Q: What sequence folds into this?
């Protein structure tokens, strides 16, 4: 597959000439950063966008530009309450959406947390695995019946998946010392494996799923648990790894560039080209088995047997089968 988009493409570039009137979209994490820009870009093309956020007052204040874009294009924008760190909240959100009975053409699971101190969700799961993976796993599966034929799921992962595979024996660090970056890596790998298995289960019904890496964007709230020294240490580590691998130095993206791969995968890319795969910089990533933060996807993140095993564990942990 060839396309004219790349690392510096913005949402405006990717969606130029696209008309999304009549399309309905759900975006989680709609109160900051990439979530707001994703909602704005799609609403600006006439889509009816539903943003999910933990803090509705914050989201309401932060999304004025989304409402303005929707008003100008003839689209719409509304908010629903969702705390991914609480399965009760996830179920309430899914129940409310199902009760409305309106279908979705696109679901983008954008919300997430990165490298927090060790902690647990309301249900006792390690914060990152519970929030980034299990919350979205439960939400998407509970509303899967609303995703229309031809629809797509876009699961936001990260090059951070390269830091660690999932640990199916100890997902909550109960028998191993907590490392925030290992926890982040596990949760981001889980985001990819979820897309792999969801795609396999739903492609016969015309629904596809893909995972994406938005790029390195410091302007979002994702890095809120890091101080400046920690950020610089992370950057230095990444740059050293890139140099050792002979790859170009680290580049940062704007929020509009960071959201571009999400909307490209959701709207522009052919479904068969991205379904069940991992995308970065508006293209399908190549397999890259070497360790370290760099371009490419680790083979373990696309392993179907691992995806099946994670799905089974996730069903057990949330107490529901799909």
A:
């Amino acid at each position: 597959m060839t396309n004219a988009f790349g690392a510096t493409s913005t949402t405006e570039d990717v969606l130029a000439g696209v008309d999304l009137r009549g399309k309905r979209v759900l975006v989680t994490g709609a109160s900051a950063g990439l979530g707001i820009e994703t909602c704005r870009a799609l609403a600006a093309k006439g889509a009816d966008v539903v943003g999910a956020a933990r803090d509705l007052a914050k989201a309401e204040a932060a999304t004025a530009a989304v409402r303005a874009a929707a008003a100008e294009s003839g689209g719409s924008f509304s908010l629903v309450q969702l705390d991914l760190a609480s399965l009760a909240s996830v179920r309430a959100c899914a129940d409310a959406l199902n009760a409305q009975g309106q279908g979705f053409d696109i679901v983008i699971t954008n919300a997430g947390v990165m490298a927090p101190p060790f902690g647990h969700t309301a249900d006792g799961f390690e914060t990152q695995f519970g929030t980034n993976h299990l919350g979205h796993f439960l939400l998407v599966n509970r509303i899967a019946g609303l995703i229309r034929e031809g629809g797509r799921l876009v699961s936001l992962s990260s090059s951070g998946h390269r830091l660690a595979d999932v640990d199916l024996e100890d997902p909550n660090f109960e028998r191993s010392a907590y490392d925030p970056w290992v926890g982040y890596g596990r949760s981001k790998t889980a985001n990819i494996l979820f897309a792999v298995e969801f795609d396999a289960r739903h492609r016969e019904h015309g629904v596809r799923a893909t995972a994406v890496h938005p790029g390195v964007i410091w302007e979002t709230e994702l890095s809120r648990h890091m101080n400046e020294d920690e950020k610089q240490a992370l950057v230095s580590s990444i740059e050293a790894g890139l140099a050792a691998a002979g790859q170009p130095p680290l580049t940062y993206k704007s929020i509009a560039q960071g959201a571009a791969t999400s909307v490209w995968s959701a709207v522009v890319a052919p479904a068969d080209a991205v379904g069940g795969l991992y995308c970065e910089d508006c293209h399908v990533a190549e397999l890259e088995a070497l360790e370290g933060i760099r371009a490419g996807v680790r083979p373990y993140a696309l392993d179907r047997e691992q995806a099946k095993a994670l799905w089974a564990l996730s069903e057990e942990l949330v107490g529901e089968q799909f």
Q: What stands out?
A: The chain has twelve helices and eight strands.
